[in-house]
């Protein structure tokens, strides 16, 4: 039997967090090898483990996979989080990419210069409120089902939940005018594998404070 996937990244959210979420939602246990210094990153870069000299990198099923989307798609395909046919896959990708656009804006906020953070935050909240959350509310309303596509959990649902929770960290009542998203959040948070990941002590990471953001910047810049 193949061993547990091994995740190579720093001990923070960044681009690895949605990968952690996908594995957790699929009920797959994983190990983490944390990159703590620039030297740790350089070691991986020099030993040929990173095709583009970048992380996230995940050792899984005898492969060393890089590129966040490729890793997520492999996990989604392997663990049935990618729909049942090519039309469902297209919709799942379309919703996933929308959530990813918002999620990425939130993910990089702590690494923005202090004097632009306030403006960035306003832009993110405006986009969440007027572009992304209305779109997902509309999708859920259009079919009245529990999940975004095919009434079955997919990588798009997992990323949407992750993104909702991250957006709520920025503004607690951000879902106030999105009742279907509120219900979606409650429902998906209660899926046993996800519920477990949301418990304290899981491998889920918290949003970086200034010190953690500065540490990560030292490794990658
Ligand atoms: N498109 C890549 C981007 C990866 C990326 O930018 N990784 C950063 C850390 S989050 C990195 O490894 N930076 C070091 C470098 O580019 O030399 C992905 O999604 O995996």
Automatic annotation (TrEMBL):
Residues 3-83 form the GST N-terminal domain. GO terms for molecular function: glutathione transferase activity. Pfam families: GST_C_3, GST_N. Its EC number is 2.5.1.18. Residues 85-208 form the GST C-terminal domain. Keywords: Transferase. It is an enzyme of class 2 (transferase). GO terms for biological process: glutathione metabolic process; xenobiotic metabolic process. Belongs to the GST superfamily. Alpha family. This is glutathione transferase.
